Every structure is written in structure tokens, then in C-alpha cells.
């Protein structure tokens, strides 16, 4: 049921192949294409010290340098494929609050959001989700009682095959540069009959293999670490961690990278641009051509002055004109016809964007602005549809993470918070003109399909809660004054009769 690490290679099957592909796609995203594309190696010489991957998780120094005459050029459109959804969702994520107007649940969710900083970290989480094919999260609580959730890499989250548990793993190194000891840390969460058990494990690493298991208390004391104690949370029926998979299928239930199927196109783009660059570098510089008689004249003079027949550029700055031989220097330039190469690169980029469900406007290949928000939406429709699907997954993950924080708080502190999903507000994925956005919000409020608080919050997303509450009070006061009927608010009439 659980994963066995001792005396085995790390990561264990079937995660080893998935982690290997993650490392490959990370190099593709980061633009380290010379390390993964075969044709890039044809322009490499062994002279400079750089770092390259050795196995799955370790790195070694090798000597490599790109030839000064044949530089491999990287036009990294792979990064754009991963970052466009993150850009759209990063600007879209709004306020996160409990689904109540007041009470301890509202205060607790507010504290979790403050400690977790989801708005600041959602861009990196979505980008890693696209590159690796999945991203994970876990719930944390410190000695001061602060509860939060954090995003972790997908290769650190290893679910058990019976869906009753999961291991969160990471490597730790101690020692100096000459000799470092490496250890595998494991936080194991497992659902038992009585509740959830959380255990801390540690193993000594021997290269890419896991050696013997160590006592966690001795390990903590030796390296002065504050490691949480093992706990049994009775009554808890779900793991305090989770995973967000990308484009999962029945054969790939743990997700697939958004960069799959485009690495070959990316290599062809790089190689086409590199090939043109080599041609330009070799033939694009103007060359000065001089008549043979002029060359002989300058070389003979240098023979008399310096004892050798040669011609320098400086020798030709001022020369005499030979009327008989017509010694007129001229520059020879090479007129390259590169239109087809540029068109080929453009076609490759469009193929890449089509495969990855990315709009051409995101790459700047087509104009990306419209006369209205609706027109802009249809221009960016491919990227918007893709981002909407990713948004639904992260919406569910954020809600689940905060709900698990409430479960942990109830179990440890003895509180009785009402367990429910928070409210996660998402705005428009694409920017709109302020006037157009305000008009839409006012129409929703006037039509009775949106509250005044939601309207003010969406029109002023950067305002504090106090400023929003004050604005709502002002609007309600003005509406109350405007709704007063002058007929009923006039003082009563008084008839003054004669005495």
C-alpha cells in the first residue's frame, strides 16, 4: 500500500519516469535547449565549465562552450505557452473569504489567506503546473497556531496506489562543498480506521539510491532541526494535502505537461534561426575589394618600410589613384534572400501555438486588441478557453486547501469551526476599459442580479475592507435621502384663525 524506499533507486517506479520528463520539460521551459536538443550539440566545443544534469536529481560540472563562430540561438516560445494561462489567471484571482457574513469562520479564513498569500503565489503555481503537468499543496501549522497552505512541486507529491495516503518527499544536504551528506525526508499521510496519521521519516542517500532508514529524533538533534512529531488526528477523513493535475487521462491520471508535443517544433525554430544567423555572420559583413595593381603598390611600399609584403586596413584609408589601372576600391556586399526562412519560422510558431491551445495574439503574431471586451475575448478565445479550464481546477484546489486548514484547526485546537468551502472570487481574464467595466457592474446591480457590496468590490478591487464598507454606507445613505417623498416630509400645515 505504502511506498518502500530503503535499498531502492529514487524516485521509485512509476514516479521515476514522470520525474525524468519533468526535468526535461523544465529545461525546455528555462531555455536550456542546448542540453536537450541534438542539433545544438553540433555547434558546441568542450572548453567552458557549466552545470549539467547527472541522473534525475543530481548535477555535475562539465566543460562546454558554444563556438564563437557558430552560436546556437534560442527563441524560447515554450515559456510563453506555460506563462500565458498564468498571466491571465494571476490578474483574475480576486478576494477569498468565508461563506459567512461574520463569526469565527470569517476570521479564521482571513488569517489563512493572509498567511498563505494565494494571490502572490498563484502565478508560480500555475506556471509550474503547466511545465510539470501537475502541482501539489499541503497544509501547515506552526507552534504559534498559524495555519496556512503552501504549493509544492509535483515531483515532491507521491500518492499511494490505494488512494488512502500520500508521501511528500524532498532531499536535504548537509556539510561543506568538499563532502556533503544527502538525506531523503518523507512526510507520510495515511488514512486509517480512526482518522489521519502523519509520520516523519528520514533515509540516508547513496547517490541516486536510498540507503538505510534513520531515527528521526537523532537526525533532528544532529542537525539541529525542528521536525514536527508524529500525530494521529482522530475523526479526520481526508488527507491534508492534494494535487492539481493538468490534462490528465485514464492512462496518465497524474497529469501531463502542457509543453508536450511542441519540443520538436521548438528545436526546428531554434535551428532555422541559428542557421540563418550562421549564414549572416559568415557572409553578411561587407568586404573591401581592391585592384591587383593597388594591392601590389601598397604591399611593395610595406616591403620597403617593414620588410614584409602585406596590406592593412589602415594602409587603404588614403591611397594614390592609378589612372592607367583604374585602381578604385569597392565594397562587396552579399544580398541574402531570407523571406522564405522567416515565413518558415512563422509557420512553425503558429503550429506550436495551435497544438498548445495558445492564441496567436499572445505571441504577438497578430494584433491583440479589440474595440470592446467582447471583441477582445474572441481574439483571445483559444487562450481564454484553456485558462478557464485551468481556473476551475485551481478554484477547487484553493477551496479544498482552505477547507483542510479548517479541519486541521478543529482537530488540533479543539475548535468547532463550521467546515465549508470558502468563496473565491475570479474577475475577467482579459483587461477591459474602466468605463466598460464600470458600466457592466452598474447594469448588474441595477438589474438586481448583483449586490451593492459585490458591485463596489469589483469596481474597486484595490480598496480595503474599511473603504468598501464606508462607500457602501455612503451609497445607502444617499439612496435613502433620494427615496424620501417630499409630500410626506413637509411639516404639517397650520391654520391660523382669528381670535
Structural description of this entry:
The chain has 499 residues and is α+β, with helices and mostly antiparallel strands. Helices cover 40% and strands 21% of the residues. The chain is built from 14 helices and 15 strands. The strands form 5 sheets. Strands 6, 7, 8, 9, 10 and 11 form a 6-stranded antiparallel β-sheet that branches. Strand 1 (44-54) and strand 2 form a beta hairpin. The model has no long low-confidence stretch (mean pLDDT 84).
Write the layout of secondary structure elements.
Blueprint: H1 15-30, E1 44-54, E2 58-66, H2 78-92, E3 93-97, H3 104-116, H4 118-132, E4 134-141, E5 147-153, E6 157-159, E7 165-175, E8 180-191, E9 195-206, E10 209-214, H5 216-222, E11 231-234, E12 241-245, H6 263-283, E13 287-289, H7 292-306, E14 330-332, H8 339-355, H9 373-379, H10 381-413, E15 423-426, H11 434-446, H12 452-459, H13 465-482, H14 486-489
Antiparallel strand pairs: 1-2, 3-15, 4-5, 4-12, 6-7, 7-8, 8-9, 9-10, 9-11, 13-14
Helix pairs in contact: 2-4, 2-10, 6-8, 11-12, 12-13
Amino acid at each position: 500500500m505504502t511506498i518502500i524506499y530503503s535499498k531502492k533507486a529514487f524516485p521509485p517506479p512509476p514516479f521515476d519516469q514522470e520525474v525524468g520528463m519533468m526535468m526535461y520539460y523544465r529545461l525546455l521551459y528555462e531555455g536550456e535547449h542546448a542540453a536537450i536538443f541534438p542539433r545544438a550539440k553540433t555547434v558546441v566545443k568542450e572548453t567552458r565549465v557549466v552545470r549539467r544534469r547527472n541522473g534525475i536529481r543530481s548535477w555535475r560540472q562539465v566543460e562546454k562552450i558554444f563556438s564563437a563562430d557558430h552560436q546556437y540561438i534560442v527563441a524560447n516560445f515554450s515559456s510563453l505557452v506555460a506563462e500565458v494561462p498564468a498571466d491571465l489567471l494571476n490578474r483574475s484571482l480576486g478576494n477569498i473569504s468565508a461563506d459567512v457574513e461574520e463569526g469565527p469562520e470569517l476570521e479564521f479564513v482571513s488569517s489563512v489567506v493572509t498567511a498563505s498569500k494565494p494571490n502572490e503565489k498563484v502565478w508560480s503555481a500555475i506556471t509550474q503546473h503547466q511545465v510539470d503537468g501537475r502541482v501539489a499543496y499541503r497544509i501547515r501549522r506552526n507552534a504559534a497556531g498559524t495555519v496556512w497552505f503552501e504549493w509544492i512541486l509535483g515531483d515532491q507529491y507521491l500518492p499511494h496506489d490505494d488512494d488512502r495516503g500520500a508521501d511528500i518527499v524532498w532531499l536535504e544536504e548537509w556539510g561543506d562543498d568538499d563532502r556533503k551528506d544527502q538525506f531523503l525526508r518523507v512526510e507520510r499521510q495515511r488514512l486509517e480506521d480512526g482518522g489521519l496519521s502523519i509520520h516523519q521519516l528520514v533515509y540516508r542517500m547513496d547517490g541516486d539510491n536510498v540507503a538505510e532508514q534513520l531515527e528521526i529524533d537523532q537526525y533532528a538533534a544532529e542537525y539541529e532541526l525542528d521536525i514536527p512529531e508524529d500525530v494521529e488526528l482522530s475523526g479526520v477523513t481526508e488527507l491534508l494535502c492534494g494535487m492539481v493535475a493538468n490534462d490528465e487521462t485514464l492512462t496518465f491520471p497524474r497529469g501531463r505537461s502542457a509543453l508536450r508535443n511542441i519540443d520538436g517544433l521548438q528545436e526546428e525554430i531554434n535551428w532555422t534561426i541559428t542557421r540563418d544567423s550562421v549564414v549572416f555572420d559568415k557572409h553578411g559583413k561587407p568586404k573591401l575589394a581592391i585592384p591587383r595593381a593597388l594591392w601590389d603598390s601598397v604591399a611593395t611600399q610595406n616591403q620597403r618600410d617593414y620588410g614584409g609584403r602585406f596590406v592593412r586596413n589602415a594602409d587603404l584609408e588614403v591611397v594614390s589613384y592609378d589612372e592607367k589601372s583604374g585602381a578604385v576600391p569597392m565594397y562587396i556586399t552579399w544580398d541574402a534572400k531570407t523571406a522564405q526562412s522567416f515565413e518558415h519560422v512563422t509557420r512553425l510558431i503558429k503550429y506550436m501555438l495551435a497544438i498548445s491551445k495558445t492564441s496567436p495574439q499572445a505571441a504577438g503574431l497578430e494584433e491583440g486588441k479589440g474595440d470592446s471586451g467582447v471583441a477582445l475575448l474572441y481574439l483571445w478565445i483559444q487562450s481564454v478557453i484553456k485558462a478557464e479550464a485551468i481556473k476551475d481546477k485551481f478554484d477547487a484546489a484553493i477551496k479544498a486547501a482552505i477547507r483542510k486548514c479548517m479541519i486541521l484547526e478543529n482537530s488540533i485546537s479543539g475548535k468547532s469551526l463550521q467546515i465549508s468551502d470558502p468563496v473565491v472570487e475570479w474577475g475577467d481574464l482579459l483587461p477591459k476599459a474602466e468605463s466598460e467595466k464600470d458600466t457592466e457592474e452598474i447594469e448588474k446591480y441595477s438589474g438586481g442580479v448583483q449586490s451593492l457590496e459585490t458591485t463596489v468590490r469589483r469596481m474597486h478591487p484595490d480598496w480595503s475592507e474599511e473603504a468598501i464598507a464606508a462607500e457602501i454606507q455612503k451609497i445607502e445613505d444617499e439612496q435613502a435621502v433620494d427615496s424620501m417623498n417630499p409630500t410626506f416630509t413637509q411639516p404639517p400645515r397650520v391654520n391660523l384663525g382669528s381670535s
